[in-house]
Each structure stands twice: as structure tokens, then as C-alpha cells.
Design brief:
With 440 residues, the chain is mostly helical. It folds into two domains: 298 residues, Citrate Synthase, domain 1 (Orthogonal Bundle); 109 residues, Orthogonal Bundle (Cytochrome p450-Terp, domain 2). Helices cover 59% and strands 2% of the residues. Strands 1-2-3 form a three-stranded antiparallel sheet. Bound molecules: carboxymethyldethia coenzyme *A.
Length: 440
């Protein structure tokens, strides 16, 4: 058994015992109540999931195993002091609930390099798709095409005991994460570089190798990718991508299937696709106004027009957050350090000054502040990665770290099939005690 896996399970089993005890002996303890408003507003605020990898505070933002993003940027192992954290370290932290040492990160890095081989048929599947297939659809198709090599499914079919499901899930998760950058880069080069692919470099770290295989060997891009892959990795359990991965995984789907399902959720414009929508919206605004340097007044007018057209302002608002997203701030800090005079960064900063006061006046919007997606595209454009339809794939690469480390914990805890109850409209009307003028 690998050294990390052994250490992991030695620590995880006593925790699994406690979760079992909670379920069996404290199952009747009441932890909250549910309102009609919550159910009809996307189950907001209902505690219905057990997720340990990260926790989202509406005011402060995300903490990964208790650490904020500034703390992670300070404390996680890096290639050099002025670099960004290695996402391998964040994965270790989320999985092991312990800040990794350099040696731990090195171990994960080596494991992923060893497991990075992608079966040829997966490339054939991508090659068979029309180049104009949206990159997220190509990416997810490739993930599903790999599901046949799931170690979990093989173990399940061979009759593995329930208590051992975590083991083959761990192996599958490690295999899958190792392969994901190659798939993402292959989709990128298939779509935008006429299928001229770049081989992986096994001397590079996970995020640096992704930049390399996409065709960006600039050190700053590699730093950006390390930061990007760290900050997008997890956002508690209830967001669409994490929740879907967990839900599909609860039916004992393989890590490949559960992750693919989760990423189809990420591909929605209210979730991860917002990163492409932001930059598209910014470019459309510039084109419509006729300048690449719009004034605050021009931006304000365009925002009002977007709202008047019944559209959302992409990159702003959040289901849980009620302040500027610290992931936005981390990207802003990166820009201030590396590209302070970039014209698009200046526009993004101006939008940040203009949008919140406007959205605040629209009574129904609960959070007028920018989320992670408001910023990422502008930095990618700076480094020449202008193909915005690809941006959500980068988000998906990062999100694998959170949702898949959580899936290992789901299996250690033996979390059962998820199956909440639903009711028809009449039931809600009766609960509200109202007479409906229409018959349900
Ligand atoms: N622009 C215009 N209207 C907005 C808005 C925005 N940026 N944010 C919220 N609203 C609207 C909602 O559409 C909703 O309108 P209706 O009542 O008419 O349906 C109302 O304000 C209340 O919404 P809310 O409770 O504040 O927010 P929700 O939890 O329903 O939705 C989110 C959250 C993120 C989907 C929403 O803020 C939004 O659509 N933002 C733009 C898209 C975006 O940036 N998504 C990325 C989120 C981060 C991520 O997952 O990657």
C-alpha cells in the first residue's frame, strides 16, 4: 500500500467510526427546519450534506480544511518562495486534513506522473468529435470514455466488500486526477491548434505541465495555473459541481462517471461557464460601445442595458457569498504583481467599481459583489489564451481536486444512496394554507 494511502486510512477509519455512530445513535437529533422559501429557492441554507474538504462563509469566503486562500498562498509548498502554491499540496490538505510537507507534495506529484498515461482510444474519441464541439462537451466525453478503466468498477465487479470501496475509489481518483491535464490540453490543441499536440514533460508539476501541454511555457503562465488550480478546487459541498459528483457517486458510480456528471453541472452558465460568459460580455460591451477603454459611465449604461434586457451580469452575485470573493481578490493581487498595466485588467477593475453599486439598487439581488469568474478570463487573455470557450475546462481541471478528494471521504464514511423526498405543488399549497385559484 502506498505511504499516503496507508497514512490516510489509518487516520480516516476512526473518523468513519464517529460518523457511523452519529448515523446510528444520534440520527434523531434535530439540526434545523426547512421553509417553503428554501425549497423553492434551490434549497439554499438547508444543511443536507456532509462535506469536510472545505467550508464557505458568506462574509469571509472559502476555507480549505480551515485555511483561507491568503493562508494557503503563504503556507502550501511552492517551487520557490515567490511562486504560487502547488495544487498537489491542496489536494493533500483536502484529503489528509493536514498541511503537507515538501516531501508529501513531491510524493503526490510523482504518483500523478506515474499514473498520467491516457489510453489511446480516449484521444480517438476526442479526434472523432467536430472541432466546434464545445470544449466542455469534448472534455466530459473524454472522461466518460475513460470510465472503462475504473479501478473502482473492476473491484466492485470482482465482489469487493463495502468497507473496502474507499480503496479502489482512492486508486481511481488518483488515476483520474493524474490524467485530467492531458485530456484538457488535448481538447485545447484539438480545438484551437489543428490537433498539433504537445507531449507531457514529466519533470513538470501537475499545473505547470498543463500549461506546457497547452503550448504555454512561460513561467508566469505556469505560476498563474498553479494559483488558478488552487483557488478553483473546492467550494463546499452544495455547489452544483460538487453536489452532483457526490450525488452520482452515492449510487456507487465510478469516480470517472461521478466527476463527469459533476462537470456537466459546472458547464452551466450560472456556475462554471460564467468565466467564459464574463469575457464574452466584456468583449461585446467594448464592441458595442466602440472602445477598448470604456469609461465608468459607459460601463454603467451597458450594465443597465444588460439588466433591462432581462440578462444577468456574469461574474457577479453568488448563492452563498455576500462579499467580494477572495478568489477574485487573489487573482486581482496576481494582476497587480505581474500585469498592473494590462488594459483588460484595468477594464475589469473599472467594472468592479461600477457593478456592485448598480446591483445593490436591484432589490432582489442578494450579493452584488464579484465572484471568481469575474476575473479569471482577463488574466488568461493577457497571456494569449483568448479562446474563452475553453475557460470552463480549466475550472473543471481544478475542481477535480475538491470533488474527488471528497468522493474518497464519502466512500470511507460509507455515505449511502442520496435520496431526498419531493412533494407536488398541492402539498406546498396546503402547507401554506392558501386557496389556489387554479387547480393543481
Ligand atoms: N445579474 C442580474 N441578476 C442577478 C445577478 C446578476 N449578477 N445575480 C442574481 N441576480 C438575480 C437572480 O437571477 C434572481 O432573479 P429572479 O428572482 O428574477 O430569478 C435574483 O437576483 C435573486 O438571486 P440571488 O438569490 O441573489 O442569487 P441566486 O442564488 O439565485 O443565484 C447566481 C446565484 C450566481 C446564479 C447569480 O448571482 C447569477 O446568476 N450570477 C451571474 C452568473 C455567475 O456569475 N455565476 C457564477 C457563480 C460562481 C460559480 O459558480 O462559478
Amino acid at each position: 500500500m502506498g505511504q499516503i494511502k496507508k497514512k490516510f486510512i489509518d487516520r480516516a477509519l476512526p473518523k468513519a467510526e464517529i460518523v457511523k455512530k452519529l448515523r446510528n445513535e444520534y440520527g434523531n437529533v434535530v439540526i434545523g427546519e426547512v421553509t417553503i422559501g428554501q425549497v423553492l429557492s434551490g434549497m439554499k441554507g438547508i444543511v443536507g450534506l456532509l462535506t469536510c474538504t472545505s467550508k464557505l462563509d458568506p462574509e469571509e469566503g472559502i476555507r480549505f480544511r480551515g485555511y483561507t486562500i491568503p493562508e494557503l498562498r503563504d503556507m502550501l509548498p511552492k517551487l520557490s518562495p515567490e511562486d504560487e502554491p502547488l495544487p498537489e499540496g491542496l489536494f493533500y490538505l483536502m484529503l489528509m486534513d493536514e498541511m503537507p510537507t515538501d516531501e508529501d507534495v513531491h510524493y503526490i506529484q510523482n504518483e500523478w506522473i506515474k499514473r498520467a498515461h491516457v489510453p489511446k482510444h480516449v484521444f480517438d474519441v476526442i479526434d472523432s468529435l467536430p472541432r466546434d464541439t464545445h470544449p466542455m462537451n469534448q472534455f466530459v466525453t473524454a472522461i466518460v470514455a475513460m470510465a472503462g478503466s475504473s479501478r473502482f468498477m473492476k473491484a466492485y465487479e470482482a465482489g469487493a466488500a463495502k468497507k473496502d470501496y474507499w480503496d479502489s475509489t482512492y486508486e481511481g481518483v488518483m488515476d483520474l486526477i493524474a490524467r485530467i491535464p492531458r485530456i484538457a490540453a488535448y481538447v485545447y490543441r484539438h480545438t484551437y491548434h489543428n490537433g498539433r499536440h504537445i507531449e507531457p514533460d514529466s519533470d513538470l508539476d501537475w499545473a505547470g505541465n498543463l500549461a506546457h501541454m497547452m503550448g504555454y511555457d512561460n513561467d508566469e503562465v505556469k505560476k498563474l495555473f498553479r494559483l488558478y488550480m488552487t483557488i478553483h478546487a473546492d467550494h463546499e459541498g452544495g455547489n452544483v459541481s460538487a453536489h452532483t459528483t457526490h450525488l452520482v457517486g452515492s449510487a456507487l458510480a465510478s469516480p470517472y462517471q461521478a466527476y463527469a456528471a459533476g462537470m456537466l453541472g459546472l458547464a452551466g452558465p450560472l456556475h462554471g461557464l460564467a468565466n467564459q460568459e464574463v469575457i464574452k460580455w466584456v468583449f461585446e460591451m467594448m464592441q458595442e460601445i466602440g472602445t477598448e477603454d470604456p469609461s465608468k459611465e459607459q460601463i454603467a449604461a451597458y450594465v443597465l442595458k444588460t439588466l433591462a434586457d432581462g440578462r444577468v451580469v456574469p461574474g457577479y452575485g453568488h448563492a452563498v457569498l455576500r462579499k467580494t470573493d477572495p478568489r477574485y481578490i487573489a487573482q486581482r493581487e496576481f494582476c497587480l504583481k505581474y500585469l498592473p498595466n494590462d488594459p483588460l485588467f484595468k477594464v475589469i477593475s473599472r467594472i468592479y467599481e461600477v457593478v456592485p453599486p448598480i446591483l445593490s439598487t436591484v432589490g432582489k439581488i442578494k450579493n452584488p459583489w464579484p465572484n471568481v469568474d469575474a476575473h479569471s478570463g482577463a488574466i488568461l487573455v493577457h497571456y494569449g489564451i483568448k479562446e474563452y470557450e475553453f475557460y470552463t475546462v480549466l475550472f473543471a481541471v481544478s475542481r477535480a481536486l475538491g470533488v474527488l478528494s471528497s468522493l474518497v471521504w464519502d466512500r470511507v464514511y460509507g455515505l449511502p444512496l442520496e435520496r431526498p423526498s419531493s412533494q407536488n405543488t398541492r402539498w406546498f399549497i396546503e402547507k401554506a394554507g392558501i386557496d389556489s385559484p387554479v387547480k393543481f
